[in-house]
Specification:
The complex is a heterodimer. By secondary structure, chain A is of the alpha/beta class. Chain A contains 15 helices and 13 strands. Chain B starts with a strand and ends in a 7-residue tail after the last helix. The chains are: A alpha/beta, B alpha+beta. The complex binds iron/sulfur cluster.
Amino acid sequence: MRFVDEFREPELISKTADEIRRLAGTERHYRMMEVCGGHTHAIYRFGLKDILPENIELIHGPGCPVCVLPMGRIDDGLAIAHEPDVIFAAFGDMMRVPGTQGSPLEHKARGMDVRIVYSPADALKLARLNPEKHVMFFAIGFETTAPSTALTIMRARSEGIHNFSVFCNHVTIIPAIRAILDSPDMRLDAFIGPGHVSTVIGCRPYEWIAHNERKPIVVSGFEPLDMLQSIVMLLRQLNAGEAKVENQYKRVVPWEGNRAALKAMAEVFELRPYFEWRGLGFISQSALRINDKYAEFDTEQRFEVPGIRVTDPKAAQCGEVLKGVLKPHQCKLFGRECTPEHPIGALMVSSEGSCAAYYNYEHRKAAMVTLSLAG
Amino acid sequence: MCLAIPGKIVEISADNQDSALVEVVGVRRRIDLGLLQDDKPVPGDWVLVHVGFAMSKISEQDAADQMNTLRMLGEIDGAMQEVKGYGLEDMN
Ligand code: SF4
């Protein structure tokens, strides 16, 4: 419980941890998946594994948008940016993600016009500022981010901007959960539901997980206490043989979600019949594309997209890690060929990816041990 | 990138109801309120901001807690960099 002292309300944390140990007992093994990459990051950062009893196993889900993006899509985006007078705009998270010919940042060093933006609205602003260029916004993210992209496209149309398009890589969380539940080697007891995605979609879309799959799911906040409380709620349900959707993060997540955000998404996007997820393969109706009404703002309709497909090296076991069959360090490449500095697989490229989170945590732990030995 | 940043609404644009000035730890930037159409914030309200758009209204206490979470996650620098970058202020 080394990290507990830094937390707000340490007594409450200890009490909740005691409650977890009491509820978990020793008889049964509990496998819970946190869907969201933010939770994965938090679990390692806060050292929650050190607090939880051994019979509670946390499996890291697919909720890191950078990690699940196939390398071919990055190559496609960069290929378009090679066309004359195109500006490649993307979030900072994308900049170091490797494509086959290097990351966007490396392409920038070789002379490509690559810009970091912190908001899709700023990509649109770039288009306004550079009327002689075409600005392509490389959009990634789950339902947390997709509404902002949608609204930006709507603004572009109402302003009559013609030199702006979006290379849409937005994905949706529910089909990914479904794919994981359908996979034969998957054994899960319950889900920790994503916090910020749920501010948009609300809690209803999870009901099938409880009703049809008989798995409890608790939408959770990101503080240590939030996550521990969510685990208490899941344990109570599991011990009582119940399966319900519960909302631990009520102070931020309304049960019905954000209607304006959902409306913007429905206005601009439609579901793709299928989309490839790195580590999980093709999942039907799991991603968004821009509908015909807004075709002018769809990079894929305005440009010739090569449709590059890249397979990860055979030794990379990202799929198994994503599905919880292997722990990050059980992959043969972990920490050797594959590190956050030189990611080979998807889960190492972002701090929200489970391999990178695990790697950083192990290093932080090692550094602390060295410190305490020296001290 | 999935962690939202709390900000306090300082001022709503007179000529554009969907544009507001927010303050995040002393840094003031313009954000978009278009996704809160059903529940418009007013100056003094706190909101969670994600990629330059307000996502939901929150209480002042929750805003403080969220800031603390970002700090503990080691994400505070990244969050401030994001906020400072809104409006292309940190033009690369
Ligand atoms: S260590 Fe690298 S290759 Fe192995 S599962 Fe993790 S990200 Fe994939």
